[in-house]
């Protein structure tokens, strides 16, 4: 197959980790007889420097003309002072909404080789950790009105959180369809004891559940969920939640796997075009030092092959290669533990290519 991939390396460690993911994709192309054509484009701080805009039209056009998008990470202290309308994060949010990527899928899994790095007590992690956070990505408070005004001599700030039935319904379907392929449990997370959006969320998710009689639905308040993820993570299969809650819970969940550096993320809309990225940030403090962990981005490339190109065997080949390199005791700095062999970003990428 011949496929076109828009590549956004971004800022900080983005270029390094994406470079390794591309090496891995090239290895897969060679082994399985595919051609991947890469179209490099800018987003975030580097796009502000080049165009004065964190997600210029040319970048959007390149994404729309591709079969999938591979993304590193954006932002850094260099752009802390830019006006809020053009902050690097704004580019990311605009990309999500202009590509219609309403579903963000973030798995949390404890690799058996990573037990040492898991911060939970063994009696908790031993029961198994394997769940997915399905986060609504283009609505809620992220995309409501943000306002600041002077009221009675002091500044008052307002952020609006809004959801429509349809926005909830479509993300609920994503969660149920995913659960059907897994352990058939959906936990819908909200704050229905306080928020109107959450009461609507609960009603709509419950209605959608009627179309999936073989999937068990439960509801949980977000504060309790934050606790349960640490106290008894084995109870979760698919968690579905709104944008801000999903942002917070997915970071919390990521550390159970040992490091945020290991977790991929897929953002999908109604078609096959998706954006694939690691869930961590641009880590400007270690940029250019060849110490970043490329595994999250490499696993994101595997998700890209699986979700957007339907290349299931190829995706599995990448995941198995990552597993074998971990089995061999190779670790980047963030997941280093006693008795293991520490390697840099480039070496980790090379080892994974070799294992493929
Ligand atoms: C994420 C990030 C972004 C978000 C930031 C960088 C705007 O934290 O992808 O989780 O909040 O969605
Ligand atoms: Mg986040």
Describe this structure in words.
There is one protein chain. By secondary structure, the chain is an alpha/beta fold. The protein has 12 helices and 14 strands. It has helices spanning 14-32, 45-51, 57-64, 88-98, 122-125, 165-180, 196-209, 222-231, 243-254, 295-309, 312-327, 345-355, and strands spanning 2-10, 35-41, 68-73, 103-109, 130-136, 146-151, 154-159, 185-190, 216-221, 238-241, 264-268, 274-278, 330-331, 341-342. It has a 10-stranded mixed beta sheet, with helices on both faces. The protein has a two-stranded antiparallel sheet with strand order 6-7. Strand 11 (264-268) and strand 12 form a beta hairpin. The mean pLDDT is 96. 3-isopropylmalic acid binds at residues 89, 92, 247.
Short description:
By secondary structure, the chain is an alpha/beta fold.
Descriptive key words:
binds magnesium ion, single chain, two-stranded antiparallel ribbon, alpha/beta, 356 residues
Taken as a percent bin, the fraction of beta residues is 15-25%
* Poorly predicted residue ranges: none
The assigned structural class equals alpha/beta
Strand count, sense and barrel status of the largest sheet are:
10 strands, mixed
Note the quaternary state here. single chain
- Binned, the helix content reads 40-55%
C-alpha end-to-end distance = 19 Å
Side by side, the strands of the main sheet go 2-1-3-12-11-4-5-10-8-9
Rg from Cα: 20 Å
Count the strands?
14
Number of helices: 12
- Order of helical and strand elements: EHEHHEHEHEEEHEHEHEHEEHHEEH
Ligands bound, unique:
3-isopropylmalic acid, magnesium ion
What best-fitting shape do the alpha-carbon axes yield?
globular
- Mean pLDDT equals 96
